[in-house]
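[SOLVED] Predicted holo structure with NDP

Edit: marking solved, answer below. Original request kept for reference. I posted the sequence and ligand SMILES and asked for the 3D complex as structure tokens.
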Amino acid sequence: MRSSTLLLFGATGDLSRRMLLPSLYGLFADKLLPEDVRIVGTARSKLSDEEFRENAIEALRERLPKDFYNEITARKFAARLSYIPVDATTPEGYDKLAEAIPIEKGVSIFLSTAPSLFTTVIQNLKRVGLAGETVRLALEKPIGSDLPTSCEINDAVAAAFPEERTFRIDHYLGKETVQNLLALRFANSILEPVWNAGHIDHVQISVSETVGLEGRAGYYDDSGASRDMLQNHMLQMLALVAMEPPADYAPEAVRAEKVKVLKALRPIMPDAVQKDVILGQYDEYAGELGKESDTETFIALKAHVDNWRWGGVPFYLRHGKKLETRKTEIYIQFKCVPHSIFSNVDARMDPNELIISIQPTENIRLKLMTKTPGLDRGGMSLREVPLDVTMEGAFSDYRRRIAYERLMLDLIEGDPTLFVRRDEVEAQWAYIDRLRASWLTAKMTPDPYTSGSWGPKASTDFIKSDGREWND
Ligand SMILES: NC(=O)C1=CN([C@@H]2O[C@H](COP(=O)(O)OP(=O)(O)OC[C@H]3O[C@@H](n4cnc5c(N)ncnc54)[C@H](OP(=O)(O)O)[C@@H]3O)[C@@H](O)[C@H]2O)C=CC1
Ligand SMILES: O=C1O[C@H](COP(=O)(O)O)[C@@H](O)[C@H](O)[C@H]1O
């Protein structure tokens, strides 16, 4: 059932202003937000409907690209918004929400608040009748800070919302090229026969950011790179690369295949952690934080998926803040040809590479060896040539969307395919908890690195010692 109300908790917060409201505007401007859908914002701030609308318009003006923002459209969009001030920690306000929202027409509730509020909010929603069959619940990450706390949140959710009405957000699944990975793998027949340990040398998944703490010091210092990015976005990308073909593009089929990969991840034990994991912290971190800290702002590791398809193929994962460039990509290096017929001439023979660029560019590139044009003496020389699948410019109506646009639309429509199931999130935490326990046992602390670099030198050395290098 499509929801006719979107109830947004944390409607005045950073995520709402930067991502959620602009995404809803994007859907509205593209006529994808169904006519009857109304958005009710809530938070503690005592705002009137009109004040909330003006705040929303201001956020849209700030956040949206100039050539997409339109004042008239923004005002029409704002007419769909209303606001009810509620302190989520006290029971009173929930009755006001229940009175104002017609549940029989379907409701999607989005919790964009600190996870510490989740349990109280959910219990109160249930108490006032806002958890019935027509109501769905979306939760922002982080779902806990380790496996036990994640299970606690998931139990509290399950007491009010069955799994099929629970939508856990991982905004990377809303990114265009992340979804394109599924199309690339499962809508083409040429890749599947070579998508395995017989043909793939290794996989790299890199998320490098130029930003630092961005005003989230308290949260970040408790989380670090492993819990902030690796636990969720990076393991989700790994699962999409490594999963078996699902029978169909349907929520349970897709998620069941992903969870098998997550459960097949080899735990990184204390004896392997110093060799297979690099931790770093950018040089300005303690200064920004105002105290010394052992929190990692960089992590690189070698992961293994212990199953038939991937036996012996390393997955190198790397993420850091304050690195040289902003880049998210999945890099797949195929094995070299088994025998070079060109070995008698001075011919370069590079392995094929598939690069799925997620941001800042959205692009898929396959690098192939071809003949260098010309009349080389004594044979031929070879060169690497890219085959590009580019989004930008390829479709006249293409617009770079915020990842949440896809997710908001799917939430309203009730399609959970691109949301994370409970067993996935818990398998992700199990992997991260083991990893962190191992590095604590091994007494590892982060190596310092210069802001604007590619992270600690050890990260380059560790992949080099396997005879490989990062695709920078
Ligand atoms: N910001 C980001 O880029 C990202 C954020 N997230 C996650 O999203 C969630 C929200 O993050 P963010 O927007 O940055 O957080 P903010 O601190 O900016 O916003 C929190 C929101 O919750 C409201 N709030 C706080 N306490 C209460 C309360 N007792 N009752 C009702 N409302 C309350 C605040 O409004 P008021 O003060 O008016 O009550 C505000 O609207 C967090 O879990 C965060 O980890 C995840 C990924 C990225
Ligand atoms: O979830 C998070 O993601 C952002 C990075 O998102 P992106 O879409 O800009 O790649 C990260 O900066 C933040 O620390 C983390 O909480």
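OP edit: Residues 209, 228-229, 328 surround LXAUTJHC (ligand 2) (CB under 6 Å). Thanks to everyone who chimed in.
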